[in-house]
Amino acid sequence: MEENIERETKKVLIVDDEQAIIDVLVYNLKKEGYETIEATDGISAVNIALEQQPDLMLLDIMLPKLDGLSVCKRVKNQLNIPILMLTAKDAEIDKIVGLELGADDYITKPFSVRELMARVKANLRKNEMTSVKKDEISSNKDIQVKEENIIRVNDLELDLDRFEVKVKGKIMDLTLREFEVLKFLATQPGQVVTREILLEKVWGYEYYGDIRTVDVTVRRIREKIEEDTSAPKILITKRGVGYYIATN
């Protein structure tokens, strides 16, 4: 099964209005065995993404016709694919807004090609593993008797087969990445997990990236599962260390 996954050619959509950047990305992605498609404005990016359904999108924020943040939102409403935002080095607000709109990651310009390739591979690998699990669940849907695959911690309930989160019985609408963060923490309730460990285990990086990614994702989760985000009862911060799921 793994051999087939590895051999399958992944398609990456590159969206940037600077041809020089596109050329560098195309060269390096093809060298790694990926198929590439390109768009130089936001409108084309949305249309191409929906028509060709790439496995991953590299998306610049500053684009003609439609900005990258709007592109991200429109594509994420239709497709469940990883989106990596390309952003200016000092544009912190763009990074945060991009993550809040559903982007899976961001990398700053000028970027290290090696780092970008590592992030592309990590996001594709994570998405592939999730897809395989969903396919296995779907193929076994006729089985009537199976073990319950649910994590419960107080009012929090995670259904690992349905990728579903409930708080006090109410279903919460979380993205896949938000679900994975919550799942990782819920499997070890009460135990503080550092941002670096979350970045490595949930995002799949083999190095310590920008922990701001973790903070923004946690904030988005809290907005969905907590009654009062200023006084969270489920997902708790251990100041200066990391996060944990409350056990009481």
Please tell me about this protein's structure.
The protein has 248 residues and is of the alpha/beta class. Helices cover 44% and strands 21% of the residues. The chain is built from 9 helices and 12 strands. The protein has helices at residues 2-7, 19-31, 42-52, 68-78, 92-100, 113-139, 176-186, 195-202, 212-225, and strands at residues 11-15, 35-39, 56-60, 83-88, 105-109, 150-153, 156-159, 164-167, 170-172, 193-194, 235-238, 242-245. Helix 3 (42-52) runs parallel beside helix 4 (68-78). The longest helix has 27 residues, at 113-139. The N and C termini lie far apart (42 Å).
Instruction: Label the structural class.
Output: alpha/beta
The fraction of residues assigned to DSSP E strands is: 15-25%
For the largest beta sheet, what order do the strands appear in spatially? 2-1-3-4-5
Shape by Cα distribution:
elongated
Mean pLDDT: 82
Tell me the helix content. Answer: 40-55%
Distance between the termini: 42 Å
Helix count, DSSP H or I runs of 4 or more residues: 9
Descriptive tags:
alpha/beta, 9 helices, elongated, four-stranded antiparallel sheet, disordered N terminus, 248 residues, single chain, 12 strands, five-stranded parallel sheet
Quick overview:
With 248 residues, this protein is of the alpha/beta class.
Give the arrangement of secondary structure elements.
Layout: H1 2-7, E1 11-15, H2 19-31, E2 35-39, H3 42-52, E3 56-60, H4 68-78, E4 83-88, H5 92-100, E5 105-109, H6 113-139, E6 150-153, E7 156-159, E8 164-167, E9 170-172, H7 176-186, E10 193-194, H8 195-202, H9 212-225, E11 235-238, E12 242-245
Parallel strand pairs: 1-2, 1-3, 3-4, 4-5
Antiparallel strand pairs: 6-7, 7-8, 8-9, 10-12, 11-12
